[in-house]
Design brief:
Blueprint (H helix, E strand, L loop, with lengths): L2 H35 L3 H29 L1 H18 L6 H27 L7 H30 L4 H6 L2 H11 L6 H6 L3 H12 L6 H8 L13 H34 L7 H26 L2 H21 L5 H14 L1 H14 L5 H53 L8 H5 L2
Helix pairs in contact: 1-2, 1-4, 1-5, 1-7, 1-11, 2-4, 2-16, 3-4, 3-7, 4-15, 4-16, 5-12, 5-15, 11-12, 11-15, 11-16, 12-14, 12-15, 13-14, 13-15, 13-16, 15-16
């Protein structure tokens, strides 16, 4: 790890930081937005799920574009859309406007996931790869935590009418991150995969010095079958990897997005509806989602990816079971179970971006990450859309049991399909 790597990590993490901010601030903003815009139950569900639907299309389309035209150009375009969309949210007057803008913001977020993660993965040393890619997820939760506490403070001191400022607030960090990303070098692995050897050598020598040698990377990339596309993800070993990454990602992220989008609503359903109590509990849970990722970063490089994933899924089932069986428990115990889930979810959370980038070659790395992101958001969008309806029809206990079942599916899929990539180079891990 050199200074260049740390700087690239900071630039790449800016996107997930902003993504976490955008996807979580809506949870607090909906409290004031609902009466102000007269949102119906359907409007409320669509406002919460619109960004996730946008992420589906953004990942599916722009992941492939990133493999075709390069990582560097897409690295800045998506942030421009994020900043502009965030600012426009402050001026909405109708439900359809916030739903449309949240959808467009989601498209940009879905594009950023494969762009930032593939670029960073292709520059990182083997021994730090999983931890550094996992750090992007930490940045996501950091952005979500900062936004949640900011939303809580704005409700406390400015009132619920401050929801417009909440939604526009991400424009400030977005502009800073955009300026930081200007001038980021292209991935030498991608350049080699396109036959642009001279450009790859120039980039590497600019970063590492004139004596830098990329012959090992060039040799590894030269044996790859070229012109891979979407169809490669539906064949042989890559089909199995696509299914594994997409499904474990879906099972892990759906409850997380439901909690972030409707956290205060869920906690109110459990009896925490006095004053600002639901927002306080929501902010605490958001902080623990962040803290739970930190030990997982180290564990991914010590015990390995597979054991970390299995143990985390197994422990994540317990809080949902407890909340489903005893939804009338005291407030303190309810917060404890939600906090336990937040802490134990760190393992799958940091591997959601590590595994896809390790298991697919350069020609389809961003494509695979985009498709897997899209698959995960199908469940996340449906879960976020259906959560208010589930709370209404099945109650808080039944909803928690559904989440426990989904988490158990993630464990079963990981048990049978999760590979171990610890200590393997990017070329080795992505080979069949």
């Amino acid at each position: 790890m050199t200074f260049f790597h740390w700087r690239l990590l900071l630039q790449s993490a800016g996107g997930p930081f902003l993504d976490g901010w955008l996807l979580s601030i809506i949870g607090v903003a909906l409290i004031g937005m609902t009466p102000a815009l007269g949102l119906s139950g359907t409007d409320l569900s669509l406002a919460g799920a619109a960004a996730l639907i946008g992420i589906f299309f953004g990942g599916l389309v722009f992941g492939r574009m990133t493999d075709i035209i390069g990582r560097q150009l897409m690295y800045t375009i998506d942030l421009i859309v994020l900043v502009v969309g965030s600012v426009l949210c402050a001026f909405v007057d109708h439900a359809w406007q916030i739903i449309l803008l949240r959808f467009l913001i989601g498209v940009a977020i879905g594009a950023d996931y494969p762009i930032a993660t593939s670029l960073l993965a292709e520059w990182l040393p083997t021994r730090q790869r999983a931890a550094m890619l996992g750090s992007l997820v930490v940045a996501w939760f950091l952005g979500a935590t900062v936004a949640t506490f900011l939303g809580f403070a704005m409700v406390e001191y400015l009132g619920e009418d401050s929801w417009r400022w909440m939604l526009a607030s991400s424009g400030v960090p977005g502009l800073i991150i955009l300026l930081m990303r200007i001038g980021t070098p292209e991935s030498p692995r991608w350049l080699i995969s396109k036959g642009r050897i001279d450009e790859a050598e120039a980039v590497v020598r600019k970063i590492y010095g004139q004596d830098a040698d990329l012959s090992s990377i060039r040799d590894a990339e030269s044996v790859r079958p070229k012109r891979l596309g979407y169809s490669a993800l539906l064949q042989g070993e890559y089909l199995k990897r696509t299914f594994f990454c997409g499904m474990f990602y879906l099972c892990a992220v759906t409850p997380v997005f439901a909690i972030y989008t409707f956290g205060p609503v869920m906690l109110s359903a459990f009896g925490m509806n006095e004053g600002n109590l639901s927002n306080i509990g929501y902010a605490l849970i958001s902080l623990l989602f962040l803290l739970g990722c930190l030990p997982a970063l180290r564990l991914s490089e010590t015990i390995g990816r597979r054991p970390l994933l299995l143990w985390s899924f197994a422990l994540m089932i317990l809080p949902f079971l407890a909340l489903g069986i005893a939804p009338e428990a005291p407030v303190g115990l309810i917060i404890f179970w939600f906090c336990l889930y937040a802490v134990t979810s760190g393992g799958p959370n940091i591997l959601e971006w590590s595994y896809p980038n390790e298991l697919f070659p350069t020609d389809i790395r961003a494509t695979a990450m985009g498709v897997i992101t899209a698959v995960s958001r199908i469940g996340a969008a449906l879960g976020t859309f259906l959560l208010p309806l589930s709370l209404e029809h099945y109650g808080d206990g039944g909803t928690m049991l559904i989440m426990a079942a989904m988490t158990a599916v993630g464990f079963i899929i990981s048990y049978f399909l999760a590979p171990e990539t610890k200590g393997r180079s990017l070329s080795e891990a992505s080979g069949v």
